[in-house]
Design brief:
Layout lengths: L1 H27 L4 H26 L12 H35 L13
Helix pairs in contact: 2-3
Length: 118
C-alpha cells in the first residue's frame, strides 16, 4: 500500500519538475506569448503591492508606532521606497508584457505572388 503511494508520488514529482522546466523554457523565450502574459500579471501584482504600501503609510496602524522617535518614521519611509520601486518595476513589467503580446497581433506580411517572382 505505502509502496504504491510512494511510486505514485515519485511519478507526480517528476511530472511537476518536467512541467516546471518547460514553463521556465517558455518564459526564457523573448517572443513567447506566455512571457508576455506572465510579465503583465507580475506587473499588475507589483502595482497592487505598491498601492498596499501606500495604504500602509496612510493608515494609522503601524508596525512601529510613530511615537517612537526616528524609528516610527523609518518604517513609513521604507514602505514609501518599497512602493516607489515596486510601482516602477510593475509599470516596466506591464509595458514589456504588452509589447511582447502586441508583437503577436501585428498583421503578417503578405507572401509574394507569382507575378512578383522573376
Amino acid at each position: 500500500m505505502m509502496s504504491d503511494f510512494f511510486s505514485f508520488m515519485k511519478v507526480a514529482v517528476i511530472a511537476i519538475c518536467v512541467l516546471a522546466g518547460l514553463f521556465i523554457i517558455l518564459l526564457a523565450l523573448p517572443k513567447s506569448r506566455l512571457r508576455g502574459v506572465t510579465l503583465q500579471m507580475f506587473g499588475w501584482s507589483l502595482n497592487v503591492f505598491a498601492a498596499l504600501c501606500v495604504l500602509y503609510v496612510i493608515s494609522p496602524a503601524d508596525f512601529i508606532p510613530d511615537i517612537i522617535p526616528l524609528l516610527g518614521q523609518v518604517d513609513d519611509g521604507g514602505a514609501l521606497l518599497t512602493a516607489l520601486f515596486s510601482g516602477v518595476a510593475g509599470i516596466i513589467s506591464v509595458t514589456q508584457g504588452r509589447k511582447t503580446i502586441a508583437s503577436f497581433r501585428q498583421t503578417p506580411q503578405q507572401l509574394p505572388s507569382h507575378e512578383d517572382i522573376p
